[in-house]
Design goal:
There is one protein chain. With 554 residues, the protein is an alpha/beta fold. The chain has 3 domains: 2-35 and 251-269, no CATH class; 44-232, no CATH class; 272-553, Rossmann fold (3-Layer(aba) Sandwich). The chain is built from 18 helices and 12 strands. It has helices spanning 2-12, 14-33, 57-75, 78-94, 127-182, 190-224, 245-270, 306-309, 314-329, 349-362, 379-382, 391-396, 426-430, 433-445, 461-466, 483-495, 514-526, 538-553; strands spanning 39-48, 105-111, 117-124, 227-232, 287-292, 337-342, 367-371, 407-408, 414-417, 448-452, 471-477, 500-508. Helix 2 runs antiparallel to helix 7 (245-270) and helix 9 crosses helix 10. The relative contact order is 0.10.
């Protein structure tokens, strides 16, 4: 039953869910179609640390990951981005057909976890520009990284080069002195010649040591420099990453539908109006009748009694079912007088009592309908009768002369006692001894007296009459009457000792809402699958017995 309840709840609010989906999807579609497309290109770099950093496999992996993270930060540095912008501007000026004027783009560089791969993403609105920007960015970074590597050993190499040049100059000068001394033609000073030759040897040894140092520095520079290799260069993108119109529209429609469904369930949760018989269980009330929602006013604007104007409709059948249920609810205690009331106004109690009176009269029972709503009488309008004289006139003048105030309704076995002129003290009149005597006289005149009263929560008239009647029938308008109001009305009636027979659920929606499934169940319980008017079970058996008895009496 819970799943069925949720299903009917979904059917009731399907319009809101569809509306939420359509509005959210349409708005997202319009915004997405008018949003400038954004593209993204990616290039992948392979980072290999220098040979001097490769201590072992694990250390090499850790060093590579750290180096990749370092390079990822450096790729997004201001120096690299500024040089990239400069080169792109220069290329745009030199070849405007290839690259449009440089607009904004963003760069995100991230190392791939547990690898030596570095992925660079460039995002922007111009696909040609961001493809060129990604490749230029990598180019600038490789050059910039090479310059940094060279700058680490540049000063040492420069100092060594300067010292070697000075030693070469010294060697050249000393060798010139030796040649001059040997070619002088005079006997050379052997000691001076030996000294100069020894000095040249020392210079050469120093030069050789400096040359070895220079070579070592070059080798260290080559081994310590990391290698950055472009694995996959950036290509011009053809599909934007956003907006994705179809995906965004479907996602927004789904979210809109979910939000609308949430709003619908919230409304249902906060709604404390009576929608189904389950809502009346807290008040200890049973449902003795369910009446479909129809317009109680005819096309010409006059109020109508469905049991007369639409005698074969489901609404008329609902009142006949109500009549039968009342008969079975009063088997132990004969029902001679019945008060029909409601918790608040405009619940349909007058329409209910009028139709109930008609179907009871059509069943052969003598019925008197008393309009005891002395504040807003309306029963006489349903039957097109006069209200110049009625209940108040009978109470004030001569309660014994009933025939002078009872009016024929046009329906056999049904007479109407209209309210009469509106008195200044309705409650005192209804609670008087004359009213009690009048009710006794009416019970002698008819098989059942139906009494239409004002709402019980508005005035105390209904409670006064309910204490004197054999039974009370409460009319509840589904989707309008609050459960708290029904509970208060029931408590008031029980405090005066009223015999509350049950509730008539009035104005029930055939489609949607929690009450629709109960309406279908209620009628399928009494009617067969082949149309209206064919009741099953005990009701059918009683009608069959009644027809046979009528034939025997004939």
């Amino acid at each position: 039953m819970e799943l069925r309840h949720y299903w009917h709840l979904l059917r009731k609010w399907i319009w809101l869910i569809v509306l939420g989906a359509v509005l959210a999807g349409s708005l997202t579609f319009v915004v997405s179609r008018n949003t400038t497309p954004v593209y993204r290109v990616s290039t992948t770099l392979y980072v290999m640390p220098g040979a001097s950093q490769a201590l072992d496999n694990y250390s090499s992996l850790i060093a590579s990951e750290r180096l990749a993270r370092t390079y990822a930060e450096l790729l997004q540095s201001a120096a690299v981005l500024e040089e990239t912008y400069v080169r792109l501007e220069a290329r745009a000026s030199a070849d405007p057909d290839t690259i449009s004027p440089v607009s904004g783009f963003s760069v995100v560089a991230e190392p791939v976890r547990e690898t030596q791969i570095l992925r660079v993403d460039v995002t922007g609105t111009d696909p040609d520009l961001i493809a060129a920007a990604a490749n230029t960015l990598v180019e600038v970074f490789v050059e910039w990284q090479a310059r940094i590597q060279k700058s680490r050993y540049a000063e040492s190499k420069e100092n060594l080069t300067r010292e070697m040049e000075q030693i070469q100059v010294s060697i050249q000068g000393t060798e010139d002195q030796i040649r001059t001394l040997q070619g002088s033609g005079e006997s050379a000073d052997q000691e001076e010649l030996t000294r100069l030759q020894d000095q040249v040897a020392r210079y050469r040894n120093s030069y050789s040591a400096l040359l070895n140092s220079y070579s070592s520095i070059g080798l260290a520079e080559a081994n310590s420099g990391a290698t950055v290799t472009v694995v996959s260069p950036a290509q011009k993108p053809t599909v934007p990453i956003r907006p994705q119109v179809a995906r965004s529209t479907l996602l927004a429609a789904a979210v809109g539908a979910l939000l609308a469904a949430g709003v619908a369930f919230l409304i249902e949760y906060l709604d404390d109006t009576v929608e189904s018989p389950e809502d009346l269980q807290d008040a200890g009330l049973g449902v003795v009748g369910v009446v479909q929602r129809l317009n109680p006013v005819s096309r010409d604007g006059a109020p109508q009694v469905f049991a007369i104007s639409q005698s074969k409709s489901l609404v008329a059948e609902a009142y006949r079912t109500l009549r039968t249920n009342l008969q079975f609810s009063s088997l132990d205690r004969p029902l001679h007088s019945l008060v029909v009331t409601s918790a608040v106004a405009t619940e349909g109690k007058t329409t209910t009592v009028a139709n109930l009176g008609v179907v009871m009269a059509q069943a052969g029972r003598r019925v008197v309908l008393v309009d005891a709503d002395l504040r807003r009488p309306s029963a006489h309008r349903l039957f097109g009768l006069s209200n110049k004289a009625g209940l108040t006139t009978a109470l004030v003048e001569d309660p014994a002369a009933l025939n002078g105030y009872l009016q024929e309704s046009g329906i056999e076995n049904l007479r109407i006692l209209s309210a009469g002129p509106v008195p200044p003290n309705p409650q005192e009149l209804l609670g008087s001894q004359r009213m009690e005597d009048l009710l006794h006289r009416l019970e002698e005149e008819a098989d059942i007296v139906l009494i239409d009263t004002p709402p019980s929560l508005v005035v105390a008239d209904a409670n006064v009459l309910a204490a004197r009647a054999d039974g009370v029938l409460m009319v509840v308008n589904t989707g309008r009457t609050r459960r708290t109001a029904v509970q208060q009305a029931v408590d008031g009636l029980r405090q005066v000792g009223a015999n509350l027979l049950g509730v008539v659920l009035n104005m029930v929606e055939m489609r949607g809402g929690r009450s629709s499934y109960y309406y279908s169940y209620y009628y399928s319980h009494y009617y067969g699958d082949h149309g209206r008017g064919k009741k099953r079970g005990l009701v059918s058996w009683l009608r069959h017995v009644r027809k046979r008895s009528a034939k025997k009496d004939g």
